[in-house]
Design a protein that fits this description.
The chain is α/β, with parallel strands linked by helices. The chain contains 10 helices and 12 strands. The protein has a 3-stranded parallel β-sheet, covered by helices on one side. A 3-stranded antiparallel β-sheet has the order 4-7-10. A two-stranded antiparallel sheet has the order 5-6. A hairpin with a 3-residue loop joins strand 8 and strand 9. The longest helix has 14 residues.
């Protein structure tokens, strides 16, 4: 497969892996796609998405730099590491809290599953059943009491309030065209986890803005999340990039590549004697990636 995409030739793009395993061929596709999207006049950036301390390891981060350099990629400095930005994420969350656009959610996974099972016809989004809203209707005094008692809690977006505060939103995907934002597909999404003071969604919109990203490229598996990201950008007054969600690579049996496909890790392919050019070709980009001008 040879990748196709559209960029202005002077975009700021980024590759944003999590250091929770070795990079595989699918990551190589994403990274090369992003580098190509920036083009020779643009800037290709790297971001380490390491908010999950339980799953991320320094040796995987070191391996990311090594694998990408071996592939022939050049990225502009500085590399942004999400684990160094928890104060920024928290400040944004507090702004949303002041406007009553988020609420603490004390539910356990088990309680949510039981509530959904008992509801009969629970609303579903493309990613599964939506949060049933149990904690949305708790009184201010109950919330205060439980927060003061230190009850473990996540913070969820109050979707209905958030949508009421924003005009109708659209966003542009370079592959699929202009989209009407439908954040309702994700419901009251978690913006800060119980164990981590942010979530993928909140961190990614703040970081893309902080890094000046103008063209967000990533796998089609994240297409749905962009509806929510567009809403968060509106709520937090952030600049709005363009997006290009690319198809995911699959293995010979048609299964999507994932971290469990260790045989297809870039390290394994390298050890098996493949050259960077051969791996780039397998990842859909036979030609050398742009180097900095
Ligand atoms: N860290 C995400 C992943 O590894 C990528 C997120 C993004 O590109 O927005 O799937």
């Amino acid at each position: 497969m040879i990748a196709s995409f559209s960029s202005t030739g002077s975009d700021v793009s980024r590759f944003a892996p999590s250091p929770s395993g070795r990079l595989h061929l699918g990551h190589a596709h994403s990274a090369l796609f992003a580098a190509r999207a920036a083009g020779r006049q643009g800037r290709f950036l790297l971001r380490i998405e390491d908010i999950d301390a339980g799953r991320c390891r320094p040796e995987f981060e070191a391996a990311i730099y090594e694998d990408l350099a071996w592939l022939g990629l050049h990225w502009a400095q500085p590399v942004l590491r999400q684990s160094e930005r928890f104060a920024v994420y928290d400040a944004a969350l507090r702004r949303l809290e002041e406007r009553a656009l988020v609420y603490p959610c004390f539910c356990t996974r088990k309680e949510i599953a039981a509530e959904i099972a008992g509801a009969g016809a629970a609303p579903h989004g493309p990613e599964g059943p939506l949060y049933p809203g149990t904690c949305r209707s708790r009184s201010a005094s109950e919330r205060r009491r439980r927060l003061a008692a230190g009850d473990p809690h996540a913070w969820r977006l109050d979707l209905v309030r958030a949508v009421a505060e924003t005009p109708a939103l659209t966003w542009h995907d370079c592959g699929r065209g202009t989209q009407r934002a439908q954040p309702e597909l994700l419901g009251d999404a978690v913006l800060a986890r119980k164990d981590v003071p942010t979530s993928y969604h909140l961190a990614v919109v703040l970081d893309d803005a902080a890094q000046g990203v103008t063209l967000v490229t990533r796998g089609a598996d994240l297409f749905v999340t962009t509806h929510l990201h567009r809403l968060l950008q509106a709520l937090l007054d952030l600049p709005v990039p363009r997006w290009h969600h690319h198809d995911l690579l699959s293995d010979a049996k048609g299964r999507r590549l994932a971290k469990r496909h260790d045989a297809l890790s870039l390290a394994a392919l390298r050890e098996a004697g493949l050259s960077p050019a051969e791996v780039r070709a397998r990842a859909g980009f036979p030609e050398a990636p742009p180097s900095p001008s």
